[in-house]
Specification:
Largest sheet: 5 strands, mixed
Bound molecules: (2R,3S,4R,5S)-2-(hydroxymethyl)piperidine-3,4,5-triol
Shape: globular
Radius of gyration: 19 Å
Strand order of the largest sheet: 17-21-20-19-18
CATH superfamily: Glycosyl hydrolase domain, family 43
Strand content: 35-45%
CATH topology: Tachylectin-2, Chain A
Number of domains: 1
């Protein structure tokens, strides 16, 4: 293959459609690694029956199947990552100090629907695994966000005992004081990505507070835990599917709204510092079907190796009734002075 054909079947080196949904890319040793959710057939294929799948490539068109690099545990094992749990949006980053590969994912322990809102962490000495599951957490237990107003710390919690449906809440998240509700247990974390800055600091970006608000959290130096330093952005904007990247010293974010598996209009934002202020710049998609992100949802945006200014948008066209058939929408990112854009192309090459 010598071009990208967004939305079509994308065969791997064995001729099988790539099975790495909600994925992300790691570039190391002149090789791209694509990690994603291994889905199975039918509607039941939306839960984790197998684990996290990895593929490798030198050219981004042709992908070699590296197999399942994190395997879910057998039914009845009682593990946090027991078969039948929800394990979504895995991302892997390389820690050049420890030499290890850290994998983070959104985890919903089996049988709780989406109420768990946890983050899973696994580690390996090798990009192609096997990854060892370490633990799952609710981020930043006991820590206030660094940009949380003192008045809110004193305000009563009005969301005590409530769990909402993920798409809406009955009042502004600050009125409910969801952060305070979750202070001791740790903040909720669902859709997520990871980002490593030029200085080697790594960040976990996740939908929190019943999906109403995005948190950006710095990881510990080994990338295997939260540092306790985090901040809230886009309060009450209900953003999912975050993808964060940096170009020319500026930080860019893409995200979706919250409409389950159905595509919606994407958002974008820009900042001079990771801790903000972040400024929303609207829907980055242009042209036909831009209003629903070309029938996709963002999962990752990554730079072409050795080309500072070229980035690729990676999105999922979900097929919830037959999860394994989900398609991938990869498109180039275009920039003007202030913001970035994505245009539809049926077929394109680098
Ligand atoms: C939207 C999220 O972006 C997906 O990762 C998944 O959690 C679905 N919601 C489930 O409905």
């Amino acid at each position: 293959m010598k071009n990208f054909t967004p939305g079509e079947i994308w065969p791997d080196n064995k001729g099988v459609h790539i099975n790495a949904h909600g994925g992300g890319i790691l570039f190391v040793d002149n090789t791209y690694y694509w990690y994603g959710e291994h889905k199975t057939a039918g509607e039941a294929g939306n839960v984790a029956n197998v684990g996290v799948h990895c593929y490798s490539s030198k050219d981004l068109y042709n992908w070699k199947d590296e197999g399942v690099v994190l395997t879910v545990m057998p039914e009845g094992s009682g593990s946090d990552i027991e078969q039948g749990c929800i394990l979504e949006r895995p991302k892997v980053i390389h820690n050049t100090k420890t030499g290890q590969y850290a994998m983070w994912f959104h985890l919903e322990p089996k049988g709780l629907g989406y109420l768990g809102a946890r983050s899973g962490i696994a580690v390996s000495d090798n990009p192609t695994g096997p990854f060892t599951f370490i633990k799952s957490v609710r981020p930043n237990a006991g820590h206030w966000p660094k940009n949380f107003p003192d008045e809110l710390k004193e305000m009563p919690v009005r969301a005590e005992g409530y769990r909402f449906d993920g798409g809406s809440i009955p009042a502004h998240p600050d009125t409910l004081n969801i952060v305070k509700r979750d202070l001791e247990e740790g903040q909720m974390a669902r859709d997520m990505t990871l980002f490593v800055d030029d200085d080697g600091k790594a960040y976990h970006i996740y939908s929190s507070e019943e999906n109403s608000t995005l948190h950006i959290a710095r990881l510990t130096d080994d990338y295997l835990d939260h540092s306790g330093e985090y901040a809230r952005f886009f309060v009450g904007r209900f953003m999912e599917a975050p993808a964060l990247f940096k170009k020319g010293g500026k930080y860019y974010l893409m995200a979706s709204g919250c409409t389950g598996w159905a595509p919606n209009e994407a958002r974008s934002a820009v900042a001079d510092h990771i801790w903000g202020p972040w400024k929303e710049m609207g829907n980055p998609c242009q042209g036909e079907e831009a209003y629903r992100t070309f029938r996709s949802q963002s999962t990752y945006i990554f730079p072409l190796a050795g080309k500072e200014d070229q980035f690729i948008y990676m999105g999922d066209r979900w097929t919830p009734t037959d999860a394994i058939d989900g398609r991938y929408i990869w498109l180039p990112i275009r920039f003007d002075e202030e913001r970035f854009f994505i245009d539809w192309q049926e077929s394109w090459s680098l």
